Amino acid sequence: MIHKPKYHSILIISLLLLVAYNGYAQSARKLPKVKVSENHHYFVTEDQKPFFWLGDTGWLTFGKLDREGVTKYFQDRKEKGFNVVQVMVLHSLNVTNVYGDKALVNEDVSKPLTTAGNNFNNPQEYDYWDHVDYTLDVAQKNGIYVAMVPVWGTNVSKGNKVSKEQAQQYAQFLADRYKNRTNIIWLNGGDTHGNEFTAIWNTIGSTLKTSNPDQLVTFHPFGRTDSSENYHNEKWLDFNMFQSGHRRYDQDTLAGSFKEDNYKFVQRDYELKPAKPTLDGEPSYEGIPHGLHDTLQPKWTANDVRRYGYWSVFAGAAGYTYGHNAVMQMFRKGDKPAYGNKVLWTNAINAPGAGQMVYLKKLMLDFPYLERVPDQTLIANQGEKYDYLIATRGGKYALIYTYNGREILLNMGKIAGDKVTASWYNPRNGKETKIGSVENKGTKEFQPSGNKVDGNDWVLILKSNK
């Protein structure tokens, strides 16, 4: 009898410790908030660690993946180094998920269809929004931020089915439901022209930002356009996003278009005031036909997604979003294919380009990240189109990218030191091969290995010896 109080006390203490631990564990599971860096060109976590946005395009995740698929997808993207996934909340106003749950009442964005409870085994409780919550939890567990498009642009631009008042109520619903989430980023718009329906997009953006100022907000625009063209000075827009698009040089007849030269978006945005980060949120998808609609055209490959990545990041972008034709539409057996796709998403997640994106992220984070600046004065033989060479540097390092193995002629002396150590970095496998020490003055020529051919891409690395 005299021992029972002792054991009882131990049990109580143990339970209290367990409760405290569980509370800590739940708190610890939250990802650090992402914010704009002090120089306003990049991202950092709330503890000031560099955050390189490496995104994947999983637009239809909420609607087409079941719980098992969600787990498989986010685990795979974690293993491949991705830290952001871009997803549509509402692809259409009648969207229904894989479990038959509709998102809205009568296709009205101001009336989300929610039920009491979230018991997956009880269909009367588990709804569309509970599945979104589950997906966000899985993403968080895998260290991934979810960049969510509230409502895809065509639902606003075609048929005018969303009023300003409905947009405000819907955005407030999202803001209230996800106010405690640290792994959410908002992509306002959604493949839409920024100069159309601006009142609705401004309403959604300002409602989300005002309600949750710690969650980043941007605008995902139509192909070959940029959020900066219409919303750069809006207080709700934290960073710019452009869609460099899916057309070849010769397929793009738009006057004034940057065509495939996605680095030009970055160069323009980089000089804007106030300074804001920018990135390519939708370049050509791996495995999609050139120009999208003619399935007899060649398909974009891993070579192309690497080119877009290194071009834009070296120009000063805060990260890069990769995409694959099958994965962006989460193509399953029995689905009606879009853009000529015939590959299941479960296979496409292992496409070559997806596995190579991490080498870009790793390279950038191997050097003092926040001090880096774009610097084309390094290059003495710049070139154009696929011959274009692009450079970025810090105080004691420089990185120069060639897409096709073209020789690199450098103006030396742009970084510290009388001598520098040079090496080649292979974007296809992440391996570095040393060249040796060279004098850091005059003009120097560097020739990559292999023939001059598209896709024989290399990064020349220079490091100060002092």
UniProtKB/TrEMBL annotation:
Domain Putative collagen-binding as annotated: residue spans: 373-462
Domain of life: Bacteria
InterPro entries attached to this UniProt entry: Apiosidase-like_cat_dom, Collagen-bd_put, GH
Any Pfam family the entry gives: Apiosidase
Listed SUPFAM superfamilies: (Trans)glycosidases
Domain Apiosidase-like catalytic: 37-370
Name of the protein described by the UniProt record: DUF4038 domain-containing protein
Organism: Flavobacterium cupreum
